[in-house]
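ZP: hey, is the zinc ion complex queued? I don't see it on the tracker
AM: it wasn't, my bad. submitting now with these inputs:
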Amino acid sequence: MKYIETQVSDLLTATHPQMLKYYKLRQKEHKKVLFTDVELEKKDIIIKYLVEPTYEGEEQPQEVSTNGQTFTNTTDYTTSVFFKTWWKFFTKESLSNAIIPLNDFKFMLEFAPVKVHCTCPAFHWIGSKYEVGKDDNSALYPTKIKDPIWSKRNLKNYGVKGVSEICKHLYQTLPKLEKDSKKILKQLNLRLQEWLDSGYRIDMRQGLIR
Ligand SMILES: [Zn+2]
C-alpha cells in the first residue's frame, strides 16, 4: 500500500476482498463493538473501542473461579484509531469553545489521516501492523517484524496474496465511527473542554499545545 496519507476508507479498501469475505462471515460473532473514549496523545486524538473476541471450535470462553468469584474468561481487545491533524478540520472558534459541529466532525472522520492499532495478537502476528506501518506510517505503534507464516496460509486458504492490512476487530471498528459520530463528538467536546481547562490551548498550526 502506498499512500502519502491513509484515510479510513483506504484501510477498508486495501484489505483483500477474500479476506473481507472472511471478516464478514465472522462479523455476527462480534456482539460487542463499543466506543469507549477519546484520548489525546501529544496533539492528536485517539478514538478507542472495545471489541469482543470471536471463538472458533473448542476455544470457547471458559468460566473461571477466583477468590470465590466466578467470571467468564474473555478478553476484549482495544482498537485505536488515531487522527492526525484533526484540529485542521475545524474552526478556531469551535475548537476554543469546545463546540465542534457534527458535520465538520464527520468530514474529519472521513478525510483526516489515520493511524490504527489493535491489541489482539493477530494484528501483530499476521503482519498487518508491519504492512500498515511500512510505506505510509499508518501503524500507531509500528513494528519491523514481518509475517513469515500467515501470508503463505492466506494464499493457501483464501487465495489472498500478502497479508491483510487490518485485523477483523479494526474491520468492525472503522465503519462504526460514522455510525457513532454523535456519541464520539459529544465525548470529544467534553474532553476538549477538560483539556482547555487544564491549560491546553489551540494553535491552528500545531494543534493542542500547553
Ligand atoms: Zn484485532
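AM: back. The chain has one domain: 8-53+71-198.
ZP: great, adding it to the tracker
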